[in-house]
Amino acid sequence: MSSIENRLNGIKKNILLSSYTTLGIGGQAKYFFVAKDTESIIKAVQVAKEYKLDFFILGGGSNLLISDKGFDGLVIKTENRRIEQNKLEILAGAGVLLSQLVRLSERAELTGLEWAAGIPGTVGGAIRGNSGAFGRSISTVIQEIKVLELDSEIIIRKYLRDQCLFDYRDSIFKQNKNLVILEARLTLEKGNREEIKKRIERNLNYRKEKQPIGLRSAGSIFKNPEGFSAGKLIEMCNLKGAKKGGAEISKKHGNFIVNLGDASSEDVLYLINLAKEKVKQKFNIVLKEEIEYLGF
Ligand SMILES: Cc1cc2nc3c(=O)[nH]c(=O)nc-3n(C[C@H](O)[C@H](O)[C@H](O)COP(=O)(O)OP(=O)(O)OC[C@H]3O[C@@H](n4cnc5c(N)ncnc54)[C@H](O)[C@@H]3O)c2cc1C
Q: What is the mean pLDDT of the chain?
């Protein structure tokens, strides 16, 4: 077999993942590849399969805790950022940033994505976790998704919205690791530019006021248990400001853990477990992670 470097042009070895996560935490990936277009994602998955390597799809790294031990496989970073708009529809590569999407929809006077302003991830990551805010989520604007299915062979097929099994921070893509989101077709509604702009500004101001913007975090650590706010439950356990090494449960928002500079993955994990334990003790509620783990 030819070397993996010959098979996948641009693949790198032993790359530190901390630069690719918003928390600024993560050890080395044995192999790391940036896919600039959809075909390159498919090729990279094919190569991982040929070389019997575990692979991990990395978007904006904004909902992730990666172990300091790193990942002994191939990280495929999605940067297929082609984005096209036609009337009410937008076609976006999985690596398109939500900020790109929000900007384009505002420019095109399309409404339905204002809630996504200020979320630092990609379209692929957002679809997998059905990201949302202010009572909306990405599922509401999805028309269809181009998906790579990895089974005994690789198949590319389209999933209509109803086939995606969207739920609160959940989708079929989260349940099945062998599905890779390649591209998405979204349908928005015609809106008024000034109103769209105002809604975006209002949402961004709300984030500035309530969340530790400017500090390194992975967004909300936990999903909100039905009828409760995870942040409030953690706050009521007096855990805001709790520290371990360089990690801190944000003083501003109980559901955010921030990296004050030199936090290790174990520091963050300690605080996650502490919050779970205290909330279980005090309220008999089990907190479940919204973030994903890699390398633990
Ligand atoms: C300050 C801040 C605020 C945030 N606010 C919100 C919020 O209001 N609402 C919200 O829902 N989230 C929020 N988040 C979390 C996060 O930004 C979103 O969940 C985002 O959509 C994750 O996308 P990502 O590209 O960064 O995913 P990553 O963190 O890179 O990956 C997350 C998971 O998705 C998988 N994945 C990524 N791309 C693909 C793909 N193409 N195909 C298959 N799987 C894929 C990864 O393998 C991983 O398991 C916030 C985060 C931060 C730091």
A: 97
* Upper half-sphere CA count for residue 155 (Cβ side, 13 Å): 8
For helices 193-210 and 98-107, angle between their N-to-C axes, nearest 10 degrees: 150
Q: Tokens 């520290």 sit at which residue?
A: 243
- Asked if pLDDT for residue 1 goes beyond 80, the answer is no
**Span from the CA of 218 to the centroid of ligand 1 (angstroms):** 8
Q: Give nearest CA residue, ligand 1 atom 34.
A: 125
* 202 HSE (CA, 13 A, CB side): 10
Average pLDDT, integer, range 150-168:
96
Instruction: Return the best residue to mutate from 40, 123, 128 for the ligand 1 pocket (most ligand atoms within 8 A of CB).
Output: 128
Task: Could you please state the CATH topology (level 3) that the domain comprising 214-294 is classified under.
Answer: 3.90.78
Q: What is the mean pLDDT of residues 127-155?
A: 97
Residue range(s) in the chain whose domain bears CATH number 3.90.78.10: 214-294
Say what the pTM is. Answer: 0.97
**Architecture of the domain defined by 83-209:** 2-Layer Sandwich (3.30)
Residue 9 has pLDDT above 90, yes or no: yes
Q: Specify the CATH class of 4-78 in words.
A: alpha beta
Q: Range(s) for CATH 3.30.465.10 in the chain?
A: 83-209
105/97 Cα distance (integer angstroms)? 13
Kindly report, residue by residue over 173-208, the tens digit of the pLDDT. Answer: 999 999 999 999 999 999 999 999 999 999 999 999
